[in-house]
């Protein structure tokens, strides 16, 4: 029996593994595995609690002596929950998370066994980091890396089986201060944005002292039976199918979307949601997505720093919990050709410490003007730095969405809806006519009334936009489903901070010249609308017409990662990141190098897997069938039957033989191109060679012939689970 038939049989006997979830209420378990400030109050002295709380809320430094007290309190809490080990938890540039577990258990000098957790161990550790990517940073500076406690993200307990580990969120930096992870730059960007946004807010409201970017992500994923996945080496090694003919019943019927969730998947969802609640991840929605076997979950939005940690943690939890249900979660952007891919929409807004959402249209002329200010500044930021934003979401796997014929496209544009387009046009149409104090028409635009309209406007059209305004937030839709949101959020927060700083400088200059504040603000808003107009697009981002129009407007359409990444190291990029103290030039260059290397490795692995599958699965199965046909034809010939009675077999034989030969030749040629690419020493040149010479030239061609064979070869001989099995068997 082949692995495929074995797997298919296994699925039909698969049963639902309903999680044993005690109590119906989410509030009963929410945050129970998190060392929240509330928990801290129970376990810490007054002094230690105050110090921790000041650090969480206001970014104040915690001194070493108090850190010792906090560490003891954390250990007491963790031990009360059965925890034996702790780890610094961080987000290296590999894209996953890293941990190194140490036990609380230790031996004193005299050999006595005790459990302890010292302040020093809480604050800083030196993981053996030599194998984390550093893009040459550590080599250049001969520095080691260390992880440093980030008190703004609360510690939590991870349960694997019966083992429990206390995880301390940390940033990961080189001794020279360069960041080696995704979190440190994000925190810097959050701080830059805070400063810039508070300055601008204070034009309208002096009470605002803090502005925090908020993030609500929507995670799309596929769920496939574990046995079927194990029978597909491409899914196991690449997270996507490199071959597979799209079945008759694909997603044309769209009957999966908002349909009922299959029971087995539903049990899995409840299970991972429950684990997530314990970790304080505020999941709110779950539903089917457009493609068969595709689903989505989304939380209530949070401060961006926490939301990023929660998303990374959730991906981990989902992957682990799926095993209990004999399922596999595919987070890849394009696991299956011919049906929708997966994204991770990043809903983003700005919240003040006075409780105002700066991207929610206001009720009064004054709050309207504040809304318009932040709204237009965001558009201007995306316009000015669209290339960097595009680079921030570039990856080998996301190329299958952005670079292919899918929505959203690789062209960055902004959708704002009909009403706000009109508002922007109104403001723009007054170019040349100076606003004066009597001219209150603009200030009085009733934006609030437009909200229902905005929601109505939330149609399919804006779903094709990579960056859409959706009533009270922007939605960055081009982010890939595997991505760490930290990178796009670092870029978005940085470019908006930069734009707001420039905005404030221009407004101040006008005020100095004698303009009234509101009038000065209106002048600059108007100028920004004019200069960033070409980024606005309300049509179908998926259409060929838009690709032509975008080209005319001069908007870049970079479909592949190796060239999209160039934007990270331009003079413009270096300046904006340095000005806002996010990345130094060497940090940027290191990151550029790391992303290119990741790209090369991914394509390299896929090319190898393709070659292996073609050689070990496809061609052998096709040859068996070819032999059967041959035998059949020669027997028919022996029986002296007229050839017209087996023309079909002859055609089949010819087709099968042609495709076998094509697969063979192309795999061979692809291997040769890989060798050529491997000999290139420049990383960018190598990445481009892998893209243009290996991937673009051979992947689709090989797949075409393999998928043809899948349609021709006897089903019994085919060893790889087919799409109809992967996608429709539950
Ligand atoms: P949909 O986009 O499906 O219509 P919602 O508009 O309710 O759904 O929200 C989608 C996501 O946007 C959710 O994850 C939600 O938490 C997030 N979101 C809502 N408001 C904000 C905000 N002010 N800042 C950041 N994210 C937000
Ligand atoms: Mg959405």
Could you explain the architecture of this structure?
The longest helix has 54 residues. The radius of gyration is 28 Å and the shape is globular. The two termini are 21 Å apart. The strands form 3 sheets. Strands 9, 10, 11, 12, 13, 14, 15, 16 and 17 form a 9-stranded mixed β-sheet that branches. Strands 1, 2, 5, 6, 7 and 8 form a 6-stranded mixed β-sheet that branches. It has a two-stranded antiparallel ribbon with strand order 3-4. Strand 3 and strand 4 form a beta hairpin. With 730 residues, it is of the alpha+beta class. The chain is 50% helix and 12% strand. It has 3 domains: 151 residues, Ubiquitin-like (UB roll) (Roll); 394 residues, Creatine Kinase, Chain A, domain 2 (2-Layer Sandwich); 131 residues, Four Helix Bundle (Hemerythrin (Met), subunit A) (Up-down Bundle). The structure holds adenosine-5'-diphosphate and magnesium ion. The site of adenosine-5'-diphosphate has 15 residues, from strand 9, strand 11 and strand 14. Adenosine-5'-diphosphate (ADP) binds next to strand 9, strand 11 and strand 14.
Strands, total number? 17
Rg calc: 28 Å
Instruction: Enumerate the distinct ligands.
Output: adenosine-5'-diphosphate, magnesium ion
**CATH class bucket of the largest domain:** Alpha Beta
Question: Fraction of residues in helices?
Answer: 40-55%
- What is the straight-line distance between the termini? 21 Å
Query: Which of globular, elongated, flat, extended, rod-shaped describes the shape?
Result: globular
Separate helix tally: 26
What is the CATH-assigned architecture of the largest domain?
2-Layer Sandwich
The biggest beta sheet reads: 9 strands, mixed
CATH fold description of the largest domain: Creatine Kinase, Chain A, domain 2
Under CATH, the homologous superfamily of the largest domain reads: Glutamine synthetase/guanido kinase, catalytic domain
């Amino acid at each position: 029996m082949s692995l495929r038939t074995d797997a298919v049989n296994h699925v039909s006997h698969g049963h639902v593994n309903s999680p044993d979830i005690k109590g119906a209420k989410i509030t009963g378990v929410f945050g129970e595995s998190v060392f929240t400030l509330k928990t801290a109050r129970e376990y810490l002295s007054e002094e230690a609690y105050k110090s921790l709380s000041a650090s969480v809320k206001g970014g104040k430094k915690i001194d070493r002596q108090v850190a010792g007290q906090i560490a003891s309190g954390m250990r007491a809490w963790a031990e009360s929950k059965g925890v034996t080990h702790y780890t610094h938890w961080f987000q290296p540039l590999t894209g996953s998370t890293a941990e190194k577990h140490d036990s609380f258990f230790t031996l004193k000098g005299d050999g006595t066994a005790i459990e302890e957790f010292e302040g020093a161990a809480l604050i800083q550790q030196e993981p053996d980091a030599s194998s984390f990517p550093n893009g040459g940073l550590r080599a250049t500076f001969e520095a080691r890396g260390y992880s440093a406690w980030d008190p703004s993200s609360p510690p939590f307990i991870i349960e694997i089986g019966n083992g429990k580990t206390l995880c301390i969120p940390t940033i990961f930096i080189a001794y020279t201060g360069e960041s080696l992870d995704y979190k440190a730059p994000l925190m810097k960007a959050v701080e830059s944005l805070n400063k810039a946004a508070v300055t601008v807010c204070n034009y309208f409201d002096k009470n605002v002292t803090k502005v925090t970017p908020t993030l609500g992500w929507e995670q799309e994923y596929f769920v496939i039976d574990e046995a079927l996945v194990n029978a597909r080496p491409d899914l196991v090694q690449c997270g996507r199918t490199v071959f597979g003919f799209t079945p008759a019943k694909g997603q044309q019927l769209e009957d999966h979307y908002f349909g009922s969730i299959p029971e087995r998947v539903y049990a899995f969802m409840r299970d991972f949601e429950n684990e997530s609640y314990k970790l304080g991840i505020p999941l709110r929605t779950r539903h089917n997505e457009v493609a068969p076997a595709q689903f989505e979950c989304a939380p209530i939005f949070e401060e961006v720093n926490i939301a990023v940690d929660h998303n990374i943690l959730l991906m981990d939890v989902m992957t682990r919990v799926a095993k209990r249900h004999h399922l596999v979660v595919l987070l890849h952007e394009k696991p299956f050709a011919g049906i929708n891919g997966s994204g991770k929409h990043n809903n983003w807004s700005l919240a003040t410490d006075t409780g105002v959402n700066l991207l929610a249209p206001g009720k009064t002329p004054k709050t309207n003007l504040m809304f318009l200010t932040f709204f237009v500044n965001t558009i201007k930021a995306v316009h000015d730095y669209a290339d960097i934003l595009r680079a921030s979401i570039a990856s080998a796997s996301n190329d299958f969405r952005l670079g292919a014929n899918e929505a959203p496209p690789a062209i960055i544009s902004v959708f704002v809806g009909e009403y706000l387009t009109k508002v922007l046009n109104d403001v723009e149409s007054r170019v040349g006519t100076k606003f004066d104090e009597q001219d209150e028409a603009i200030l009085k635009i009733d934006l609030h009334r437009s909200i229902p309209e905005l929601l109505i406007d939330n149609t399919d059209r804006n779903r094709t936009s990579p960056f859409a305004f959706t009533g009270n937030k922007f939605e960055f839709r081009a982010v890939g489903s595997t991505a760490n949101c930290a990178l796009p959020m670092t870029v978005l927060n940085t470019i908006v901070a930069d734009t707001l700083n420039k905005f404030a400088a221009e407004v101040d200059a006008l005020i100095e010249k004698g303009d009234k504040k509101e009038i000065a603000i209106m002048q600059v808003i108007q100028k920004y609308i004019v200069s960033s107009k070409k980024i606005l697009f309300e049509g179908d981002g998926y259409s060929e017409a838009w690709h032509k129009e975008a080209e005319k407007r001069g908007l870049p359409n970079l479909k592949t990662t190796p060239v999209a990444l160039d934007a990270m190291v331009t003079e413009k990029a270096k300046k904006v990141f340095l000005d806002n103290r996010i990345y130094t030039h060497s940090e940027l260059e290191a990151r550029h190098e790391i992303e290119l290397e990741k790209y090369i490795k991914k394509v390299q692995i896929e090319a190898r897997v393709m070659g292996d599958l073609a050689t070990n699965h496809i061609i052998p199965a096709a040859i068996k069938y070819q032999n059967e046909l041959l035998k059949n034809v020669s027997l028919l010939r022996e029986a002296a039957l007229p050839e017209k009675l087996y023309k079909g077999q002859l055609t089949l034989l010819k087709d099968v033989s042609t495709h076998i030969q094509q697969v063979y030749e192309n795999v061979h040629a692809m291997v040769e191109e890989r060798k050529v690419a491997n000999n290139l020493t420049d990383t960018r040149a190598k990445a481009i060679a892998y893209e243009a010479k290996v991937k673009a030239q051979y992947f689709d061609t090989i797949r075409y012939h393999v998928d043809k064979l899948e349609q021709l070869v006897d089903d019994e001989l085919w060893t790889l689970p087919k799409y109809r099995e992967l996608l429709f068997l539950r």
